[in-house]
Design brief:
Helices cover about 35% and strands about 25% of the residues. Strand 17 and strand 18 form a beta hairpin. With about 500 residues, it is an alpha/beta fold. The longest helix is centred in the C-terminal third of the chain and has 15 residues. Helix 9 runs antiparallel to helix 18 and helix 10 crosses helix 16. The protein has two domains: about 160 residues, HUPs (Rossmann fold); about 325 residues, 3-Layer(aba) Sandwich (UDP-N-acetylmuramoyl-L-alanine:D-glutamate ligase), CATH 3.40.1190.20. A nine-stranded mixed beta sheet has the order 10-9-6-13-14-15-16-17-18, sandwiched between helices. It has 18 helices and 18 strands.
Length: about 500
């Protein structure tokens, strides 16, 4: 008699108990684990083959929050995926795993045999490298790891072909793009960024999110009254840019100023990745910049913002001299200098002149905000090897609202002697330009947005070493848009874009 589907779905603790009882009776327990976002004949034959290896087949599916294949995935939620697996006759019991890998599952369930598909038999091809950890976990519990050799399909390929989560323009772009470039080639190029040494210089910003609910209009004043809920504090500005880079490049030095008033130094140091070295200067005449945003938590709508910054943005001459002294001595040892200029006073004309004259490779990102609107323009740099800014910023720099974007890119490229430029365009994607290769328009890969804050920082950070390494600009635009699609799903700077999830997303896009 067939088990009721719901009776086949158990908690991980229940699966551990089922396993222990079966093994006590001398039965062999087999465990399979995966996402199983779209069940296909390959999965079914995988389960049948796994069941032949023992007496009881347990299958665990990865919870939605750990699928990590980029926007739009999983297509089917964890409960529906678990039910689908449970409907297969050869599967005895199913559970939902709330861990990023199967290591904890193996420790708890202690199967006699842990089974993976044939695509994991070549362990060096596993993008995550977790197969080695899983194999070690199986060895420690006295079990075996085996691989089935059944017909194989790609769930991602099937989803992209028939259940595509991508906008129409993205589907057309990806169809042409993957005919020219493979996921393996792009991932290999990204792995090759590891040895690039980078100096990141820019303004520190502490981003505060104060979550509050609107409770109505004040009776006496023309204001909206809100009820405070809680708050989060993030390491933003140049700190966010450096943290994004840290998963891709090992040698990173961060240069910036910390205000002595309300300096946040302990917070800053505790929120930087371990491989980031710091060169901080303390500015006695101002606080560390804080941007306090009051946010409706339901949809992360920003209600209003209070900025804590000095009215005078001029960097004290003694600090400027100290920074120039360091740059004169150290700048040549870095392959790349990345400037993320938020216009809060750190990047002075003297520092710009030194960077432009001495940097081996200079990447520039300037950002317009309410405190510097119309004043913080990319044209203050006389030279750059790579420019990455958004469309409003290039239009401000060219004093031109209406001309075609490509004409403005050529103008800025000529004025700054810059041969490689990317202009980000929000929901319209990006335009990548190379003097040698021409123009490439790359659409957005997802319209799913949680929070736009920091998306541009992530884009420029991860594409900068790509441009330095000579990766084709069409691929740079693709990588940047993939990074942006991942970053807009992260609240503020709560987390950084990591290498392995980006590799998995690229593999998903190009299946």
């Amino acid at each position: 008699m067939k088990k009721d589907l719901k009776n086949k779905i158990k908690s991980i603790e229940e699966l551990a108990s089922i396993s222990a009882q079966a093994k006590a009776k001398g039965k062999k327990v087999v465990l399979c684990h995966g996402v199983f976002d779209l069940l296909h004949p390959g999965h079914i034959r995988h389960f049948i083959a796994a069941k032949r290896m023992g007496d009881i087949l347990l299958v665990t599916v990865t919870a939605d929050s750990f699928v990590n294949k980029g926007p739009g995935r999983p297509v089917f939620g964890q409960d529906l995926r678990a039910e689908s697996v449970a409907a297969i006759e050869s599967v005895d019991f199913v559970g939902i795993s709330h861990w990023p890998t199967a290591v904890e599952l193996i420790k708890k369930i202690k199967p006699n045999i842990y089974v993976k598909g044939s695509d994991y038999a070549k362990k060096e091809q596993d993008l995550t490298g977790k197969i080695y950890e899983e194999e070690e976990a199986v060895r420690k519990i006295g079990g075996q790891i085996r691989f089935t050799d059944e017909i194989s399909f790609s769930s991602s390929n099937l989803i992209n072909s028939f259940l595509s989560p991508y906008p129409e323009e993205a589907k057309a772009f990806l169809s042409q793009f993957k005919a020219k470039y493979s996921a393996d080639t792009i991932i290999s190029s990204l792995k090759g960024l590891s040895e690039v040494s980078i100096l990141v210089i820019g303004d520190i910003i502490i981003d505060e999110y104060h979550y509050c609910l609107a409770i109505g209009k004040s009776q006496k004043d023309n204001i909206i009254a809100t009820r405070y809920i809680n708050e989060e504090v993030f390491a933003g500005g140049v700190l966010g840019a450096a943290n994004h880079l840290a998963s891709f490049c090992q040698d990173i030095t961060l240069l910036s100023c910390i205000g002595t008033k309300n300096n946040y130094e302990k917070f800053i140091l505790s929120h930087l990745r371990p491989n980031i070295k710091t060169q901080f200067y303390h500015r006695a005449d101002s606080p560390t910049v804080v941007k306090r945003r009051f946010v409706d938590p339901a949809f992360l709508n920003k209600i209003f913002e209070v900025c804590y910054l000095e009215e005078s943005l001029q960097l004290p001459k003694n600090l400027e001299s100290d920074i120039c002294r360091y740059l004169n001595k150290q700048i040549k040892r870095f392959d790349v200098v990345l400037v993320t200029d938020f216009g809060h006073g750190l990047i002075t004309p003297r520092i710009i002149e030194l960077l432009s004259r001495k940097a081996n490779f200079l990447a520039v990102n300037v950002q317009t905000n309410s405190a510097n609107f119309g004043f913080n323009l990319v044209t203050k740099f006389p030279r750059a090897d790579y420019i990455c800014i958004d469309e409003p910023e290039i239009r401000l720099a060219c004093h031109d609202r209406v001309s075609p974007l490509k004409r403005l890119i050529l103008d800025i490229g000529q004025r700054l002697s810059c041969g490689r430029i990317v202009i980000t365009r929000g929901h319209r994607g990006s335009v990548a330009y190379s003097k040698k290769e021409g123009f490439f328009e790359v659409p957005v890969f997802s319209r799913e947005i949680v929070d736009r804050i920091g998306a541009g920082d992530a884009f420029v950070s991860i594409t900068t070493p790509c441009v330095f390494k000579g990766i084709p600009m069409e691929v740079v635009g693709f990588i940047g848009n993939a990074v942006g699609a991942m970053k807009v799903l992260i609240v503020g700077h709560r987390a950084s874009v990591e290498a392995v999830p980006l590799f998995k997303y690229i593999a998903t896009l190009l299946r």
